[in-house]
Amino acid sequence: MSVVNEYDVVVVGGGPAGSVAAIAAARSGATVLLVEQNGYLGGALTAAGVGPQMTYHAGDTQVVRGIPEEIVQRLCALGASPGHMADFVGYASSVTPFNPEGMKYVLESMALDAGVTLLYHTVFVDCEADSCEGGEIASLRLLSKKGFMRVQAKVVVDCSADADVATSAGVPSCYGRESDHLAQPMTMNLRVGNVDRDRLMDFVKSNRSDMLPSIPFDDLRIIPRSGIQGAYSIVKAARGAGELSIDRDMVLCFETNTLGEYIVNMSRIIHRSAVDPIDLTYAEVEGRRQAWEIYAFLKKHIPGFSESHIVSTGPNIGVRESRKIEGVYKLTADDLLSNTMFEDAIAMGGYPIDVHSPDGEETNHRFLKSGSWYSVPYRCLVTREVSNLIVAGRCVSATHEACAAIRVTPIVMAMGQAAGTAAAQAALNKEPANSLDTSALRAQLRADGVFLDEYPSEN
């Protein structure tokens, strides 16, 4: 099998992390190939109905900037996002609704403008037989309808979300939580249009005791978009009456860029593996069944939905968690809750620990100190086994609980920018990616607008 081409950097996976990684690497002067199985970029944002983005902020401090913020500004200029706003369910410091078609266009335009070579409708198969000798990936085998092809890269960035490249290269990983390897549930998001948002907001305000207490009830008319998290008693009654069969204890929905259109995040598929095609097939089918069941429940029981209609379900099931690599360092919940500031920090985050139960209906929360943030070290992105591999996205080295915080879009985008910048640095300077100069990396990230300020320690 002949080599199709050689690149400084090959990024596998064009989701939020991979798109930003490719843009960052190309802007840093590297030749970049971005391999994506779909015909567009964005991953779960554009293929699984995920939204809004949350959160770019920790209290009043914007802790995710750089390329992710540039994406938001371009979306706003297109009319494809109203920008950052207070979280209308009071869970996170901010939310950022967006139009998924706008997201596709913005990510693709930015990648092409940076000089990224896009390769759609192509999947990663494995590392070549001799790829990992000496702790280095020499080439990747890819598959398209045309057949197999082989590409070489000085540095490979695994943004597959499931650590596919790392696994093929022999890097150990942990699936799901450490105790039993069950992962957070998969969800088929449902987009519903023509919702009477005024009736919905009135319902939320008049049923405070049945809603998430953090909802800013008195400000719902001020915040540009709306949502609901709660109606616990109504869901419980519907489940008791046999109208709802899902393992979910509340209604959760978020208004999109389009007024009166809501993303409903309620379905749950548990005890299934996101890396098993049989389980994934079941999840897709069951997710759509649940979506229609949820829609019937909303129309009957939640004011504002009676005249609504289904716009879409996600083309793919949404996956919260699968494999997580065993990196040089494993990020923990204690690191996040204690606001640990690592010397090799390459990204900051302010999203709480948000564990959707792998085996039940609950969502377990562990919140940060108000207005505080945590850091993600570069060592979570690299492995001891492979010197020219960097990982970004939800599959970085983190515990089950820590992953439940850093898996969200703004943070994986921030990790993607760091991974792409590091990959270019390693490729162009002929440095091992797993032992490069992180002080130089951090300096470049700061120069590119990335927020790396430390959270002030309490004396």
TrEMBL record:
Pfam families: FAD_oxidored. One of its GO terms (molecular function) is oxidoreductase activity. The keyword Ubl conjugation does not apply. InterPro entries: FAD/NAD-bd_sf (IPR036188), HdrA-like (IPR039650). Keywords: 4Fe-4S, Iron, Iron-sulfur, Metal-binding, Oxidoreductase. It comes from the Bacteria. PANTHER family: COB--COM HETERODISULFIDE REDUCTASE IRON-SULFUR SUBUNIT A, FERREDOXIN:COB-COM HETERODISULFIDE REDUCTASE SUBUNIT A. This is FAD dependent oxidoreductase.
